[in-house]
Amino acid sequence: MLKLSIIGTGNVAFHLARAFSAAQGVNLQFVAGRDLEKLKTFEEFSATLNLNKELEKTFYSDVILIAVSDASIAAVSQQLMESKALIVHTSGSTAIQILDQNKRCGVLYPLQSFSKEKELVYKEIPFLIEAKLQDDLGVLKLLTESLSANYFTVNSKDRAALHLAAVFSNNFTNHILTEAKQLCNDHNVSFELLKPLMLETVQKAFSIGPENSQTGPAKRKDTPTINKQLSALKSAEQKQLYTLLTQAIQNYYER
């Protein structure tokens, strides 16, 4: 059985701790974090789970999972140099080389958005894995299999590219939806009315390709409609976003 420790108290650490505490073949021993109040939220996962600020307690696990902010990974990993465990971070944009000072190191990046109030279906989440040593790649495969998740061996450069693509497809799209919801609220119409359109948009993007399913005034170069919609926007930021995306769409189809 793999003995596992997790360092971090954010959304990723919370979800992975909950999942691994119920996984077959994994013994979640320890969760470490600076915020004792946040650590208390992990108590529900196991009566035997050790919660503490002292990273030294993690040294005797088989795997130590660092689920902290990208800026903190290096500092945390330096405190684990005396451990013989496999040291693994969960970042999409951070290269494995940041863990080079550790004898054994790897990456376990779940390509998904995490929020504490939303349950996750792990068999639908791709995990991107990487390890310095071939044997440790096998350990990461065992960890993902314990969650019934799919794993893909991806190097740091390609993982960073996927993370960037995820920012465009998830974070930027979510902000655009936030602006769309604000427009609906401003005019007292239901944001829910857009749901069938959005589901169809995503479905077509993955069935025929987003570049083949683009429609709308920008694609048609419908200048009267574009100008009319621009004048209807009251926020300078919305006008700027509309103009930038319109130009980007037109530039793409003029290539």
UniProtKB/TrEMBL annotation:
Residues 125-248 form the DUF2520 domain. Residues 3-83 form the Pyrroline-5-carboxylate reductase catalytic N-terminal domain. InterPro entries: 6-PGluconate_DH-like_C_sf (IPR008927), DUF2520 (IPR018931), NAD(P)-bd_dom_sf (IPR036291), P5C_Rdtase_cat_N (IPR028939), TM1727-like_C_sf (IPR037108). Signal peptide: none annotated. SUPFAM superfamilies: 6-phosphogluconate dehydrogenase C-terminal domain-like, NAD(P)-binding Rossmann-fold domains. Pfam families: DUF2520, F420_oxidored. PANTHER family: CONSERVED HYPOTHETICAL ALANINE AND LEUCINE RICH PROTEIN (PTHR40459:SF1). This is Putative short-subunit dehydrogenase-like oxidoreductase (DUF2520 family).
